[in-house]
Amino acid sequence: MNASSWAMRAWLALRAAGYEFDEELVDIRKPQRFGNLARIGKLSPAASVPVLDTGRTVIYDSIAIMEFANDVCNGALLPTDAEARAHARSVAAWQHAGLSSICHRISFESAFYPVKRAFSPTERAGCERLFSHYEALLARYSGPFLFGAISLADFMHVPTVIRLCRHGADLTRWPRARSWTDTLLHHTLVVEWMREADTLAPVWLEDYLPGGAWPAAPAA
Predict the structure, then answer these.
(1) Cβ partners under 8 Å of residue 202, min gap 6
(2) Boundaries of each GST C-terminal domain copy (predicted)?
(3) Under CATH, to which class is 82-197 assigned?
(4) Which of 53, 97, 131, 196 has the greatest number of C-beta atoms within 10 Å?
(5) Cis before residue 114, ω within 30 degrees of 0?
(6) According to CATH, where is 1.20.1050.10 located in the chain?
């Protein structure tokens, strides 16, 4: 739960849709990662998490699971207006297709490190670009969420907001985005996930610090 932002996104959407499911947690840390994902490969051709087995169909992509969640709650997790709905899907797809390139070394895993490093100038510029876009969406659709009511677009961006805000992103210039971020991070489902994720041992990634590996093994 502190290593898979994609599983978190799918979980949030399914829970928000009121879809009942049983959870099976999969440890994707090395070295057990490879054996566990191979086991998932017997169920899903993607051999990755998340995967949803409805009993009739296996859905093995996070955004497909989220769209399924929207379908089972009669479209409540996307705007009713066709253009706004397409816009929301664009925002969700941006995250799915490449938003991780913004501050990519500040991963979801690093949100749980007890000590955080500072943003680099490039990472700071990436934050500014992203939160400026959030601010524009909130102004256009009047908040409190990106498209008015909470939607798949908000849930898709939760892990990104977590990793950047936990590294001290300064949102002073974007008051709407700051309010949205606070509301999002205090959402009941986000709090529920993070409460458990915060109890787990951090997953240390070598590319987090400049120069590579951690200088010493972190305390458990």
Answers:
(1) 2, 109, 112, 113, 114, 218
(2) 81-203
(3) mainly alpha
(4) 131
(5) no
(6) 82-197
Q: CB atoms < 10 A from the CB of 106, how many? A: 25
Q: What is the CATH number of domain 5-72?
A: 3.40.30.10
Q: Give Cα separations from 45 to 27, 80, 156, 171 (angstroms).
A: 18, 33, 23, 41
Collapsing DSSP states into helix, strand and coil, what is residue 108? Answer: coil
Contacts for 20 with CB less than 8 Å, ≥ 6 apart: none
Per-residue pLDDT at 197 exceeds 70: yes
In the chain, CATH 3.40.30.10 covers: 5-72
Contact 59, 67 (CB under 8 A): no
pLDDT of 72 higher than 50? yes
**Token reading at 45:** 């051709």
Polymer length in residues for the chain: 220
CB-based contact 181:197 (threshold 8 Å): no
| Cα separation, 164 vs 28, whole angstroms | 22
142 burial (CB, 10 Å; 0-12 / 13-18 / 19+) is exposed
Q: Is the pLDDT of residue 32 over 90?
A: no
Please give the structure tokens belonging to residue 16.
């928000």
Q: How far apart are CA 116 and CA 94, in angstroms?
A: 26
